[in-house]
């Protein structure tokens, strides 16, 4: 019998598998996707948010624990478990050497990502390179890897894991780690979770999935029905405003638009609806998908002029270009009169003389709502560009409740041999909101914990918290 069964194939699952194997356990990893699509959402990532008290390798200056915590507190609005969040923060300071040992390399932040050069360590080659490195290391260590093996249910004895069920196959193990993502790719579940709005729309019908199509949430649904303690709002997620022309699945990070803070964003009625300059983009990009989700038709347009060109990471799709605002309105289907009025009012409200996109500058608006707090400059220099935006869901926050040992809870009590890591338990830390790279921090921290604890549970089994007589 296998000691530790890991269900999932992304960063958290691979960290769990590697740690369990290093602890001496025999390990099998079940990845739902075929080999060519392995890695879950991790293949689309590019960095890890890291606490550090001074300059370290690719990280500049310092990013102490309290600042990390305050950043997380701000984006979540306090909907987070501080104990588990601080566990993630502290673990992020010491994981890079272990990652390097398994073939992950880092590089300095690229031009266009300097806002997070201090807080985030970038993977050389991005998430795909990280995933491939981990798979190579797992294979070299003797981890059994099976692709195309989605698990739909578990065999449980009360709160104890017995076996995984994949199709007609039963796969027993002494301990199990679930790290198989959320339910964002299950479009019907997303539709049910979001429901119908006051305009009679089903918002989720207009959502795009930035990541893998294989996160269907089958095991998550099973855990709900099995009575596991759950945490998180099913409508909360890592939800980014991405180019509306992106594919339904696997568009990845290149579909994100980074020009929002350099111009204005209007809905299909050509009206602004939120402060585009509230904070640095890495701290705010993940709120914009949800903002767009509540707009009519779940569509919006990021509009810039020639002054903004070259100041943000080039997107995968070209902007819709026009030499005048009326022409831009016609090309985007916006009302010409309303768009011109919105821009005219915005331009007249702009104040400040020292535009600097690298700091919280004094360029702001006065006398209009919503205000633009920073980086407000008149849109007056053609050509103009518009980028259509739709909500891009990366992963959902509904998940299993865990403790500091990554143990799944039933009725407030931890399972002796069932653990969870990654997106499937991210709601413990992320009640809402997001800040760049923290998903990989959560997956790495809890993946490593879950793998270690699962190996211990396999080696020293306990029955419903009974003393470990075998070890004694």
TrEMBL record:
Stored InterPro entries: CobZ (IPR012831), FAD-dep_OxRdtase_2_FAD-bd (IPR003953), FAD-oxidoreductase_2 (IPR050315), FAD/NAD-bd_sf (IPR036188), Succ_DH/fumarate_Rdtase_cat_sf (IPR027477)
Pfam families: FAD_binding_2
Domain FAD-dependent oxidoreductase 2 FAD-binding: 3-429
SUPFAM superfamilies, per the entry: FAD/NAD(P)-binding domain, Succinate dehydrogenase/fumarate reductase flavoprotein, catalytic domain
Cofactor dependency: FAD
The entry's keywords: FAD, Flavoprotein, Oxidoreductase
Domain of life the protein comes from: Bacteria
NCBIfam families linked to this entry: CobZ_N-term (TIGR02485), PRK08274.1 (NF006130)
Stated name of the protein: FAD-dependent tricarballylate dehydrogenase TcuA
């Amino acid at each position: 019998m296998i000691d530790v069964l890991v269900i999932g194939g992304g960063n958290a699952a691979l960290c769990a598998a590697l740690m369990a194997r290093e602890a001496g356990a025999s390990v099998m990893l079940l990845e739902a996707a075929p080999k060519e699509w392995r890695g879950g959402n991790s293949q689309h990532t590019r960095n890890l948010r890291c606490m550090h008290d001074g300059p370290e390798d690719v990280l500049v200056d310092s990013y102490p624990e309290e600042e990390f915590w305050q950043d997380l507190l701000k984006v979540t609005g306090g909907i987070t478990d501080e104990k588990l969040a601080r566990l993630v923060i502290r673990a992020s300071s010491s994981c890079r050497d272990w990652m390097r040992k398994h073939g992950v390399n880092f590089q300095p932040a690229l031009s266009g990502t300097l806002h997070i050069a201090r807080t985030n360590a970038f993977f050389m080659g991005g998430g795909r390179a990280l995933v491939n490195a981990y798979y190579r290391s797992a294979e070299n260590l003797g981890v059994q890897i099976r692709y195309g093996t989605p698990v739909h249910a578990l065999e449980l004895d009360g709160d104890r894991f017995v076996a995984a069920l994949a199709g007609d196959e039963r796969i027993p193990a002494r301990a199990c780690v679930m790290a198989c993502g959320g339910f964002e790719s299950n479009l019907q579940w997303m539709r049910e979770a979001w429901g119908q709005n006051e305009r009679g729309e089903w918002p989720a019908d207009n959502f795009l999935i930035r990541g893998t199509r294989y996160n269907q949430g089958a095991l998550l649904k099973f855990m709900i029905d099995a009575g596991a303690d759950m945490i998180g709002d099913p409508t909360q997620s890592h939800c980014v405003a991405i180019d509306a022309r992106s594919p339904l699945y696997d568009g990845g990070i290149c579909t994100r638009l980074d020009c929002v803070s350099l111009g204005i964003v209007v809905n299909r009625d050509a009206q602004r609806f939120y402060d585009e300059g509230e904070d640095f983009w890495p701290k705010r990009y993940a709120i914009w998908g949800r903002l767009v989700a509540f707009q009519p038709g779940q569509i919006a347009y990021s509009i810039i002029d020639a002054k903004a060109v070259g100041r943000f990471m080039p997107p995968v799709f070209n902007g819709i270009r026009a030499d005048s605002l009326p022409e831009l309105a016609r090309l985007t289907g916006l009302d010409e009169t309303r768009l011109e009025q919105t821009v005219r009012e915005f331009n007249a409200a702009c104040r400040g003389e020292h535009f600097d996109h690298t700091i919280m500058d004094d360029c702001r608006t006065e006398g209009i709502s919503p205000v633009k707090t920073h980086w407000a400059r008149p849109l007056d220099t053609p050509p103009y560009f518009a980028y259509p935006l739709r909500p891009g869901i990366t992963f959902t926050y509904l998940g299993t409740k865990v403790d500091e040992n990554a143990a799944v809870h039933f009725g407030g009590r931890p399972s002796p041999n069932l653990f969870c890591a990654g997106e499937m338990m991210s709601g413990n830390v992320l009640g809402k909101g997001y800040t760049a790279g923290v998903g990989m921090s959560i997956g790495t921290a809890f993946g490593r914990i879950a793998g270690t604890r699962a190996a211990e549970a396999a080696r020293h089994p306990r029955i419903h918290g009974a003393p470990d007589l075998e070890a004694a």
